[in-house]
Amino acid sequence: MERNLKELISQMTLEEKAGMCSGLDFWHLKGVERLGIPSTTVSDGPHGLRKQDDKADHLGINDSIKAVCFPPAVLSACSFDRDLLETLGETVGDEAQATDLSVVLGPAVNIKRSPLCGRNFEYYSEDPYLAGESAAAFIKGVQSRHVGTSIKHFAANNQEFNRMSASSEVDERTMREIYLPAFETAVKKSQPYTVMCSYNKINGTYASENPWLLTKVLRDEWGFKGYVMSDWGAVNDRVEGLKAGLELEMPSSNGINDAEIVKAVQEGTLDEAILDRAVERILNIVFEYVDNRKEQPLTLEEDHEFAQHVAEESIVLLKNEEKVLPLEKNEKVAFIGGFVKNPRYQGGGSSHVNSFKVTSVWDALTEKENVIYAEGFSSETDVYDEKLAAEAIEAAKQVDKAVVFAGLPESFESEGYDRKHMHLPECQDKLIAEIVKAQPNTIVVLHNGAAVEMPWLKDVKGLVEAYLGGQAVGQAEANILYGNVNPSGKLAETLPIKLEDNPSYLNFGDGDKVEYSEGIFVGYRYYDKKKMEVAFPFGYGLSYTTFEYSNVKTDKDTLTEGETLQVSVDVTNTGDKFGKEIVQLYVADKTEAIRRPEKELKGFEKVALNPGETKRVTFTVDKRSLAWYNTEIQDWYAASGAYELLIAASSQDVRLTKTIQWKSTQVLPLHLHMNSTLGELQADERSRDFGIELKLKMNALFGLGSSEDSTDAVSDEMGDAIAFSIPVRNAVGFGLCTKEELQKKLDELNKR
Question: How is 449-461 classified by DSSP, letter by letter?
Fold first, then answer.
């Protein structure tokens, strides 16, 4: 339906326009009945809808309608499967249409800076490329149903402690390379209908009133077309927020901030055109949903089955010594732990779904004659019960294999607070250690929203990372444990050995200012650079079959501005089972132009292969794949030179490499001055000759540069090192030129 929104807005009173810029209540936008503008509903829902019919809250305290809980992002990201995530989005979009929800508040793409962040279960990854690709696919799926998404939390919202007031102190290069790209990818690829700004400040300015963030970057640079809404209660100054690019305040301010907007317009401190523009952006999304409203049934059972499929495609097999998995149906097995019958399958807080049913792994077992159950420990508390523990140890002795279902109780991690440590409940670690002594064939299945320390890791033969698997997690676990499904997930985050290894360890959880002093070295970027041992690396995951990589080729050896390059590799299933492999492309900058990570993920594909089958996987590489953000030119920049394309099975399992050359047409400005060093002059071809000239003159002055003239005190190597760091102003003091002559030469070079 064609609508003239500007004409519609011209018929609204100032008060009605101001009112459109805040919620009617907790979950509804205001309407204007006399003009045919309806009130619409928004709801949490990145992994399942949380529509509340009466008592409303933002922390999951009150019940919402019965719905399907799909695997949260902590698990679904491990699928590395864009098509799967797009279908997940379509399913969520269908459920939103069925329940009359216009906007789903998600996905959440904040980077996993620390394992302690209480909301990590809702975030995709430590890697911005994976997070962005995952979000773009999910958004595309949801919005194909004319239901909006609200990508969140924009931006640098990486802890829960003091999240409403803390300032994330982040340099621009780190923002651009780590904390913004997931949002950028999603906006450019999928145009989310809305963006939700975060609570926190960024370098001292609230995200809700940050024009650099909400207008310059989001709209002017990335081309965002929808509207920006606040996180619930994130508005500090409503009028300044509106000026900065915050269109919608949520929830209702009970008219208080509406009146502030009206007053500002009347007094001339707010241009009414800014208000009109905000209303138009909101109405454009409102009518996108209203004009495409579709009555349809809520297909809970079908969606439950799809939730199971997502979990099966995402669960990660981390350890499988002596092929302890898959379990055989005729083996006697003990299932141990409170999670066997009471799985933890989602996180706490605003995304908590009121699941219409939950399938535990015990429910999923169709034949239980060879399986015995021992509770061992509660899934909800950290209490070592001697009686329960003894029963579990005895059960482990009586069987061929023991499977311990361990994990974090809901009280250990949730929105609103951060974890204090990375441990499992002490009772679980203690019992696992005892089970291993009684039964050498012990397997652990983890239910957790973030990384945990595993002091028993070397002693268990099998380890399955199920994370939080959604309401059908039990059936998915049973199918993977018994080999009905071949595991194919890979880790979307590094699992460190201990908390102290994490790059943000000394700078996480501060209350007023949080210094992101680790910069761009987050996750595997840090561990790789430090050559640090980890429990399991980013991108790692095992299968019940094996894969071989071969025949890597590129369609060209040199790349330049505006071009793309194709790199292809053959992947073969060399085992005897059908399986899926996640092939990863990393790029390593070999130019040494600036300090960078050892490698960065720039592509991934999931490929399904029958035994003996080979398929060719192709990735596209462009300038952005090679580039880093240069704050001096305010743009992405790649220095000319060699780059390695790494075909890998994980960040630490590089199978094949191919070196290409990049020829840049970008020229960085020279800023030479009296205190520039000879080394700086020699590093750039435009000033290199002059730098060498000065160096030779200084060497001649001090008798350096010849082995015959070298002394024990000053070797050629030492002379070169000293000369490299000498400020050019010394050429004046050494009588090699006048100050005026040197400044004239520097000015001339700076113009090149």
Answer: SS----TTGGG-S
Residue 587 CA to residue 598 CA, distance in Å, equals 8
Which phi and psi angles does 420 have, rounded to 5°?
Answer: -95, -15
Q: What is the mean pLDDT of residues 703-719?
A: 56
Q: What is the mean pLDDT of residues 186-215?
A: 98
Given a contact cutoff of 8 angstroms between Cβ atoms, the answer to whether 460 and 436 are in contact is yes
DSSP annotation string for 271-318: -HHHHHHHHHHHHHHHHHHHTT-------HHHHHHHHHHHHHHH-EEE
Query: How far apart are alpha carbons 237 and 215 in whole angstroms?
Result: 17
Residue 597 has pLDDT above 60, yes or no: yes
For residue 602, is pLDDT > 60?
A: yes
Q: How far apart are CA 222 and CA 654, in angstroms?
A: 33
Model pLDDT, residue 712: 55
Among positive and negative, which fits the CA dihedral 347, 351, 352, 354?
negative
Maximum CA pair distance of the chain? 96
According to DSSP, residue 577 is labeled S
Nearest in space to 76 (alpha carbons), one of 60, 92, 55, 65: 92
Q: How many beta carbons lie within 10 A of that of residue 107, not counting itself?
A: 33
Residue 685: pLDDT band (50, 70, 90) is confident
Kindly list the distances between the CA atom of residue 254 and the CA atoms of 199, 265, 591, in Å, as whole numbers in the listed order: 20, 19, 57
- Could you check whether 300-529 and 547-663 share the same CATH topology? no
Pick the CATH number of 547-663 from 2.102.10.10, 3.60.15.10, 2.60.40.10, 2.40.10.270: 2.60.40.10
**Domain edges within the chain:** 5-290, 300-529, 547-663, 678-750
* Cα R_g (the chain), whole angstroms: 29
- What are the angstrom distances between the C-alpha of 504 and each of 430, 513, 519? 28, 14, 9
Nearest to 488 by CA among 337, 351, 316, 627: 316
Does the pLDDT at position 731 exceed 80? yes
CATH (one of 3.20.20.300, 3.40.50.2000, 1.10.275.10, 3.40.50.10160) for 5-290: 3.20.20.300
DSSP 77: G
Going by C-alpha positions, the residue among 346, 296, 359, 344 that lies closest to residue 90 is: 296
**Burial 314-326, CB ≥16 within 10 A → b, else e:** bbbbbbbeeebbb
Report the distance separating Cα 71 and Cα 303, nearest Å: 12
Distance CA 344, CA 348 (A): 10
CB 212 within 8 A of CB 172: no
**256, containing H or E segment:** helix 256-267
Distances (CA, A) of 545 to 465, 542, 651, 677: 18, 8, 20, 57
Residue 462 contacts by C-beta under 8 Å, 6 or more apart in sequence?
319, 320, 321, 324, 325, 403, 442, 443, 444
The C-alpha atoms of residue 154 and residue 214 are separated, in whole angstroms, by: 9
**Tens digits of per-residue pLDDT, 332-376?**
999 999 999 999 999 988 889 999 999 999 999 988 999 999 999
Which CATH number is associated with domain 300-529? Answer: 3.40.50.1700
- The answer to whether residues 290 and 78 touch, using CB atoms and an 8 Å cutoff, is no
Question: Which contacts qualify for 249-253: CB closer than 8 Å, 24 or more apart?
Answer: 249/21, 249/22, 249/23, 250/22, 250/23, 250/42, 251/23, 251/25, 251/26, 251/27, 251/56, 251/58, 252/22, 252/23, 252/24, 252/25, 252/26, 253/22, 253/23
Which tokens belong to 712?
């024990």
**Active-site pick, 94, 231, 429, 528:** 231
Q: Is 231 labeled as catalytic in the residue annotation?
A: yes
